[in-house]
Amino acid sequence: MSWFTEQLHANYQLRLLVTQTLFQEKTAHQDLVIFENPVMGRILALDGVIQTTEGDEFIYHEMLAHVPILAHGQAKRVLVVGGGDGGMLRRVLQHRGVEQATLVEIDPGVIDLCRKYLPSIGENVFDAPRARVVIADGAKYMAETEDKYDVVIVDSTDPIGPGEVLFSAAFYGDCKRCLNEGGILVTQSGVPFLQKTELTNSYQRLKQHFADASFYLAPVPTYAGGFMAFGWASDDPEARRQPVAVIADRFAKSGLSTRYYNADVHVAAFALPNYVRILMA
User: pTM value?
Assistant: First the structure.
């Protein structure tokens, strides 16, 4: 047995016991490892940073998928940028009203390895009739596609290496262009207690393109440092102000079975503590 040490942040480490290394390889795009931990189960790390775990993936995936789709209320076409583990795509397709969900993933190796070693996260979603998988650079795809979507979900790595471009103002502008009227963009926006600049930069860049830009929060244990922030952007300010009764009705009609998400959590997630509000000033 050994220890996996993540040091994404200066002066702050996350350590996880490794009981078994299932796979490790440097692909064309990133250094990938899949290992087992007694608490979190199987874990995927890219370039030394935890991406997903069997233990707590449900919090991240449910909040990044269900919040925008149920806030929209009539989403039929959804785009996921990143998310090669399949967890986000699976949550999106749990919504019966979604006619097609497109996944754009830069590294086919991630998909293949997750299907083999982390099947519980994506299950058989890549073979679903309503799923469309595109192997491409997410930023390039958004800049060139003529397709339109009701919801765009950016399930990216942190803004380092290949994932950095997915936090740029130009990328957010391309997302805006690809949204239908009333569309919603949500993004992985890091842990604001430790990644202050990331949140501030994302907010300023989202504001350049959308009438309503904000964040919502959820605690994901392996994304150490407190609450994780999810970027929110739309030209409809009322989309993130839906009352609990409306969300509860949509949730009940959806038939979703969730472990973290519910209507109360949905609405409460948009209540931001002062240390986050300051970063948006």
Answer: 0.95
Domain 2-52 of CATH type 2.30.140.10: yes
For residue 3, what is the enclosing H or E element? Answer: strand 2-9
What span, in angstroms and rounded, lies between the C-alpha atoms of 93 and 73? Answer: 14
d(CA 164, CA 129): 32
Return the half-sphere exposure (C-beta side, CA atoms, 13 A cut-off) of residue 196. Answer: 9
Residue-wise pLDDT for 162-183, tens only, equals 567 777 999 999 999 999 999 9
Give alpha helix (H) positions in the chain: 57-72, 87-93, 108-117, 119-122, 138-144, 169-177, 196-207, 244-254, 263-268, 274-279
**Residues with active-site annotation:** 155
* HSE toward the beta carbon, residue 19, CA cutoff 13 A: 8
| Domain ranges in the chain with CATH number 3.40.50.150 | 57-279
